[in-house]
Amino acid sequence: MLWRNSTMPTSSLSLETARLPEIITSLPGPKAREIVARDAEFVSPSYTRTYPLVVNRGRGAMIEDVDGNIFLDFNAGVAVCITGHSHPHVVEAIKKQVDDFIHISGTDYYYRHLPDLAKKLSELAPGSFKKRTHFGNSGAEAVEGAIKLAMYKTHRQKLIAFLGAFHGRTFGALSLTASKARQRAGFGPQALDVTHVPYANCYRCPYKLTPETCGAHESSGPHCARIIEDLILKTTVPPEDCAAIVVEPIQGEGGYVVPPASFLRTIREIADRHGILVIADEVQSGMGRTGKMFASEHFDLVPDIIASAKGIASGLPLSATIARADLMTWKPGAHASTFGGNPVAISASLATLELLEDGLLTNAAVMGDYLLDGLRELQKKHSLIGDVRGRGLMIGIELVRDRDSKEPAPDERDQIEIECFKRGVIIQGCGTSTIRLSPPLVIDREQCDFALKTLDQAIAVVE
Questions:
Q1: What is 91-355's CATH number, 3.40.1130.10, 2.60.40.10, 2.60.40.420, 3.40.640.10?
Q2: What is the pTM of this model?
Q3: How far apart are CA 201 and CA 214, in angstroms?
Q4: Labelling 336: which of 67, 100, 212, 317 has CA 20 to 30 A away?
Q5: What pLDDT sits at residue 216?
Q6: CA Rg, the chain, in Å?
Q7: For residues 51-68, b (16+ Cβ closer than 10 Å) or e, as one string?
Q8: Whole-angstrom Cα distance, residue 351 to residue 330?
């Protein structure tokens, strides 16, 4: 099995031999403080950092900072480092490609990498139909490509998306994004005509319903999906003007929210009745993160177009817009990217997919179940934990100040992030008051146990 060999020769053995964190200086250490100060002087202040982690090296699920402190990474570069940090199989593929050539734009010339990866993604993406792929550099670019294609093919201008969604920060993707007000503040009118409706968040149902009373278990589907056809298409979005419904199969930035399967099934049925396309944003939930190659597979959802990025190349910038071949028929020059599909990034992606199929998908499912069981035990112990949810290694822990009222606990969430950092575990928040766990898919039971123990300690301190 390729994925188990996670050690690499280096000048220092501390990181390679580290199974668990080791904090040897106060945080941040002196070198980290100097870099943080320089960053504050010269780097855009729009970046968001909760705590001062200054990375020097990474191997597998472990990170070493510039002062020699070693951390267990349960964030993976915001769900990007799917195969762990600097996996030797991926590094080997990158080095080999760099020796051959680094770049020659795929929009103007041919090389084997583009059809090789496109063919592989066509085989892996849901749906038995033929598919084509357009390559970009980021999740936002994949989403931009998806909505451009949908509007190009349908000749329709309106879109439906969901509250809590995050689809990117470029102007088109930002029109779809409805996660946090500060992401839109100061940027004027939105570029696209998008109508937002509530996502299927059963823990915080905006309609004050339960899965039993909303129809989630019935053939008609849940209220939050039916509202699209029963209200939206009859009032503000004429179906003949709607190009696509854009949905995250599992909502990411909005709080790692897992919908009932009937939600996505009903969306698919509504879209089919009205000739509307379904775009699945799998930027965060795809590439094995949930224990399946794409999260859509958990719900038997077959999208018309998929946006993929983040873990697709184990950390190199690459994205893919994967669509039905009968949709992706736009003419030369309609959409392109100079760097999209860079041969080094594609080589890393092909190596990544080999690792996923060789055992990491299975490990993500097994370790995900193990973590969920452990977190539900912590939920019994800590009243601050209101909800635990997820699929595979895409897990959300929603914090509340009171379980009855479900009052969010954003300050406590931020404090827990910092307490975990002090103890050597890297986590990150999402939504209003949710902790997201998105570790590399190479983690093992010992590392899961340490993460659970650290969370237990951090929550206890904050409580």
A1: 3.40.640.10
A2: 0.95
A3: 12
A4: 100
A5: 86
A6: 22
A7: bbbbebbbbbbbbbbbbb
A8: 30
